[in-house]
């Protein structure tokens, strides 16, 4: 899909969701492979390529965790620059999960970068809800930005964030048509994965693209099952094979408007009744 089509008012997006297998603690090798996969996806017409949580380092924190301080990169570091070059060359948006260290000193963040077709960094999202060992190696984020693209508005949450309805709801209330969830979801919790993604899509009448890692890292098994759910909560595409791969799916984001008229959850909210949600 070209920018010309999008400029004409198109709201159709070709997603390429990369079920990525990482080499532990080797950002250079992982980034090189990721850029190759971005190029291949772009050649097949992808408008948006999404890589999972901590793709550049691997996830198993029993191994990766002690090395996070030296593996984390600034937003102008080599991994992000390579992704920007790949986005520019492929004329596609890229969303990718990695450990980021911002200007302030201290513990890095478990983040995702959002890059546009011109290779410009639109912004970042920092994971808000840290899972298990992540608390020892990362700081938690505190913002839910949304990003305007030439096909619609997108939001990002990361893995465990998907279990908290408030994150996806804050993105939807800011007009997100498509919510991306780069993840490192483990095999023993796939029953929760299969519930969370459709639920977040239905209750926010938005598309949800849940992009999981694949691989065995020490004792941690991540089986993939990357999927896309429509605003009715139906799974419309999934990588059934437990292997590295790319899920290609084309979505018409105009459908979000129709679904929100048929299931007006956002319109019919009663925030005056929800004080308990704000209590610690």
Automatic annotation (TrEMBL):
Domain annotation CN hydrolase: ranges: 13-253
Record keyword Transferase present: yes
Cross-referenced Gene3D superfamilies: Carbon-nitrogen hydrolase
GO molecular function annotations of the record: acyltransferase activity; hydrolase activity, acting on carbon-nitrogen (but not peptide) bonds, in linear amides
The organism's place on the tree of life at top rank: Bacteria
Entry-linked PROSITE patterns: CN_HYDROLASE (PS50263), UPF0012 (PS01227)
Keyword Acyltransferase: yes
Keyword line: Acyltransferase, Hydrolase, Transferase
Transmembrane segments: none
PANTHER family linked: BETA-UREIDOPROPIONASE, NITRILASE C965.09-RELATED
Family recorded in the similarity comment: Belongs to the carbon-nitrogen hydrolase superfamily. NIT1/NIT2 family.
Protein name (record): Acyltransferase
Originating species: Eggerthella lenta (Eubacterium lentum)
């Amino acid at each position: 899909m070209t920018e010309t089509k999008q400029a004409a008012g198109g709201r159709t997006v070709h997603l390429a969701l990369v079920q990525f297998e990482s080499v532990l603690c080797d950002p250079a090798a992982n980034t090189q492979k990721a850029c190759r996969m971005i190029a291949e996806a772009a050649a097949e017409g992808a408008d948006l390529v999404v890589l999972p949580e901590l793709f550049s380092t691997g996830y198993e924190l029993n191994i990766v965790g002690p090395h996070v301080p030296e593996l984390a990169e600034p937003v102008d570091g080599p991994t992000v620059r390579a992704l920007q070059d790949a986005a520019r060359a492929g004329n596609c948006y890229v969303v990718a999960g990695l450990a980021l260290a911002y200007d302030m000193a201290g513990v890095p963040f478990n983040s995702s970068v959002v890059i546009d077709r011109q290779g410009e960094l639109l912004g970042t999202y920092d994971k808000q809800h840290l899972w298990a060992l992540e608390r020892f190696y990362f700081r938690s984020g505190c913002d839910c930005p949304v990003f305007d693209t030439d096909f619609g508005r997108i939001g990002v949450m990361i893995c465990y964030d998907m279990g908290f309805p408030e994150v996806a709801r804050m993105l939807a209330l800011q007009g997100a048509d498509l919510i991306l969830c780069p993840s490192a979801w483990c095999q023993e919790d796939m029953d929760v994965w299969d519930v969370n993604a459709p639920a977040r899509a239905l209750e926010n009448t938005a598309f949800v693209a849940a992009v999981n890692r694949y691989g065995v890292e020490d004792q941690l098994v991540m089986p993939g099952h990357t999927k896309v759910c429509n605003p009715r909560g139906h799974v419309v595409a999934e990588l059934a094979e437990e292997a590295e791969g790319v899920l290609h799916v084309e979505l018409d984001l105009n459908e979000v408007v129709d679904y929100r008229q048929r299931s007006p959850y956002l319109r019919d909210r009663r925030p005056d009744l929800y004080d308990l949600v704000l209590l610690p």
